[in-house]
């Protein structure tokens, strides 16, 4: 039986002014359907893991919104972190809780705010990853790169492992410079690391114990108290002491050195929605397409007239009429209290705008 | 004694969505001060004609707003047209009313929605025009062209007239093609026709009687009843029969053929604010300057952060934050119910947007 674990965190600065501190990316419907990215993630894993075996790990600030967005998940499957401790604590706690239920269960970790372009293909690839994980591999799904992206980490793949599509992961690579990224893509041996991991919980916890013994001990103690009256007291005492570290650094890189990590190459479209330009990439069929993202259900649908406009990302979260004329590769984001207009090539720099608003304590816009 | 006549009409389509049917351009503060274009026009002529000798001619739709914007003008100086009859009827009625008061008065006609960049120089030039008018000339102020604009009509000037700067106007020229406009500008003999006319009312009315006898008869009948109890009844009966024609076509072209028209060359910056791009031209010191136009007094000032943005016209009529990033030569107009984003070179095409909204009866946006 397979379990899905969905860490749902994030600061909401890269899709400002659409995403805010109280409306992070994973709560927003960004893909042209009424589903938020979180809801789409839960739907995507549903053929593999039903609601009882799907966990969302989120912070106190978003617990209520998450619980309401995924009403079919049992209360206990919404794991609320008292404070942010990065992905290893979040995923590790879920793994430890699952291990007490089913010690050799296979689980997968899936970010709540990424976009996948082909859910059927996703399920096929995941089935192969699950098969490799049942054999004891720690699987990092490797997205086949379609261009030399410098904003993602890469996996370097080696010889095949087992009888399926899995290949050994020789090492994890940091975000490369452009020239190196070009070489990676040309080699055919490198894959994007989507931080999408599949493993048996016992295999993962053994590696966690070996590489991060204090973190392992803390998470084990919390998991032991999870289904008791002591949960809150133990969380309160232990959680603040846990190390802030990503699961990539904490466990996966060391496990790869020991030869425990493999990858299953994945050819479905995937995007981490790092900014409005990449959101456009994820949703458009061509570089000249416009991507128009309408209001969510709580707001009257805004109307967009895009005249002689190409390659642009137009987001309307108000009931207003938006007219664009003669634009190329522009991002327009229309929200109730803030308007953002930007050349698409500069979309990443919105984080500097947010940093400046933070510096001047312009809380109403954060 | 000099009289100023200010026709205040216009459909409000060229500065959409800022200008609307109920908020035409002349009622808007567009020049970075709190004065509307109409108020700025009244202020500009004040050194030549005080409130008692300044008339505004406007339609029923805008009479109340006009009256409130220029409270120092006597009630009777707000001339309200029952229906739109183009500029000859509007200006001619004012001329006829003034003539009954002072038969040889000099009057000038000044559009309510143009921008002049140097009010002191404007007054100097007008004094020269008034002097020529006192000698019986019909004066069309000729703006010295600074580039080959194809959106304006031109005046072709000939030999000097009298001892001042006035020159004979040989003929009026329609809006030229670009190549011809270049020749006009290079010749030094052509000026932009700003439809800014100065004449003795008796000279004008004589020409009107000669060229447009029916229109002259109608306007004279209305003016005769103006200060009587019959005003409303006569207006109601006569006004609808008046010819719809501009004063340029109705009178000035024919008067030029008779040698009655001269021009006083004017070197003050002038712009008819035909679209947001020309508004930017009128208000910026260089092609890379941004022009930022804030909210009017009835709306909380919107805040604009223009980051690495040049040559752009940014208009905010809401209390929202506007952030632009990496834009070149873009128009952004943010109003309560509609947002317009456009490449600056395409600003004129907004009239096609408005035409399409009209065609589908989207009244709320007109």
TrEMBL record, chains A, B:
Residues 4-284 form the Nucleotidyl transferase domain. Keywords: Nucleotidyltransferase, Transferase. Gene3D superfamilies: Spore Coat Polysaccharide Biosynthesis Protein SpsA, Chain A. It comes from the Bacteria. CDD domains: GDP-M1P_Guanylyltransferase. Pfam families: ManC_GMP_beta-helix, NTP_transferase. Residues 302-357 form the MannoseP isomerase/GMP-like beta-helix domain. PANTHER family: MANNOSE-1-PHOSPHATE GUANYLYLTRANSFERASE. This is Mannose-1-phosphate guanylyltransferase. It comes from Micromonospora parastrephiae. The lineage of its organism: Bacteria, Bacillati, Actinomycetota, Actinomycetes, Micromonosporales.
